[in-house]
Design brief:
Elements (H helix, E strand, L loop, with lengths): L1 H12 L3 E13 L3 E12 L4 E12 L12 H7 L10 E2 L3 E6 L3 E7 L11 H21 L15 H10 L2 H8 L7 H21 L4 E4 L8 E4 L2 E4 L6 E4 L2 H8 L7 H17 L12 H18 L4 H16 L1
Parallel strand pairs: 4-9
Antiparallel strand pairs: 1-2, 2-3, 3-6, 5-6, 7-10, 8-9
Helix pairs in contact: 3-8, 4-9, 5-9, 6-9, 7-9, 9-10
């Protein structure tokens, strides 16, 4: 690690680093990826002592359903021109050094400080939605030809395929349709009704503008700092239909108490941001509630079935109830 760390810090701190004292802290980990915070003191050839924080993200090769190259997508995106199109208001972590083998990627990334997760307020939800809309709107309006050179992006129909894959799981499908289901009947009927209307919904959604989607736009990947938004974890990024990312922001680990308010303010802010570059006044419906039910209905049932505590079960049912009330 020492050689790559020294190389990274030399670039990050813009001075020649000769040696480093550091400690590590696990930020996130799993079977296919590990994220480690490395912090300490760097020593320059000029004799300066420079405190630092940097993140090492290691992702092992794996195959996501219908998206086999997602394990290396962040590497490919950092190697591409995408970083040129971000703004001060919406950005991603700077990558100082990256490596790839046949089996894993290693990204040495800027440590992002800010408010994230359950600490995000409604105003921060709204700001994130607005800035995402502006980012997507500008890219859609400008259609920079450089974007066409980025080949490793997920396809526009990824959300629809994800839904149909989940629906094919007997364990969740049969439970929703079972008289023995402990999820309230009106919530099961909401999911069943969404199934019946899915073809029409996706037909309408497929007429919306195709934009560059983050595709994992939820609270733990959003960092707010003084009006600026930083987004992490770009491994599912691809082309999708207008409004798709807002579904995750509203429904994934939802802020139950404010979910309905957040829905209205985020959809409005997102439309406002996108409309700064593209006239969408003729588009009356983004079908965001419908897509929330399709994308998260069966997932919430699965999470309910695998919940380890009554409190977790209650949370997933409460999320379905709030979706119902939107």
């Amino acid at each position: 690690m020492n050689e790559n760390l020294t190389h990274t810090l030399t670039k990050m701190l813009d001075t020649n680093i000769t040696h480093v004292d550091y400690e590590t802290e696990q930020l996130q980990g799993g079977t296919v990826g590990n994220v480690t915070l490395i912090k300490g003191m760097a020593y320059s050839s000029a004799g300066k002592e420079l405190p630092f924080k940097v993140v090492l993200k290691i992702t092992k090769k794996w195959e996501r359903y219908n998206d086999p190259d997602s394990w290396r997508r962040e590497y490919d995106l950092y190697a591409s021109c995408l970083g040129e199109f971000f703004t001060d208001e919406l950005n991603w972590p700077t990558c100082y050094h990256m490596e790839i083998t046949d089996n894993e990627t290693r990204l040495w990334l800027e440590y992002i400080d800010g408010i994230s997760g359950q600490d995000l307020t409604g105003e921060m939800y709204e700001r994130a939605s607005y800035e995402l809309g502006r980012f997507q709107g500008k890219l859609y309006a400008d259609t920079p030809p450089e974007l066409k050179t980025i080949t490793n992006l997920s396809e526009p129909e990824a959300m629809e395929k994800f839904y149909r894959h989940y629906k094919s799981w007997d364990i969740v499908y049969d439970y929703v349709h079972s008289d023995a289901s402990e999820i309230p009947k009106h919530l099961c009927e909401m999911i069943i009704s969404a199934d019946e209307n899915a073809d029409d919904v996706f037909r309408n959604v497929n007429n919306l503008p195709v934009v560059l989607c983050h595709r994992d736009f939820w609270i733990t990947n959003i960092f707010y700092n003084s009006g600026h938004i930083a987004l992490i974890d770009w491994d599912t990024t691809g082309w999708g239909y207008l409004g798709e990312d807002i579904t995750s922001l509203i429904a994934d680990e939802a802020d139950i108490d404010n979910m309905i308010e957040n829905y209205h303010r985020c959809v409005s802010a997102y439309r406002r941001g996108f409309s700064e570059y593209v006239d969408i006044s003729h588009i009356d419906n983004l079908y965001i509630k419908e897509r929330i039910v399709l994308h998260f209905g069966y997932r919430l049932v699965e999470w309910y079935l695998h919940a380890k505590t009554p409190k977790e079960k209650q949370f997933h049912v409460a999320t379905l109830q709030k979706i119902y009330e939107i």
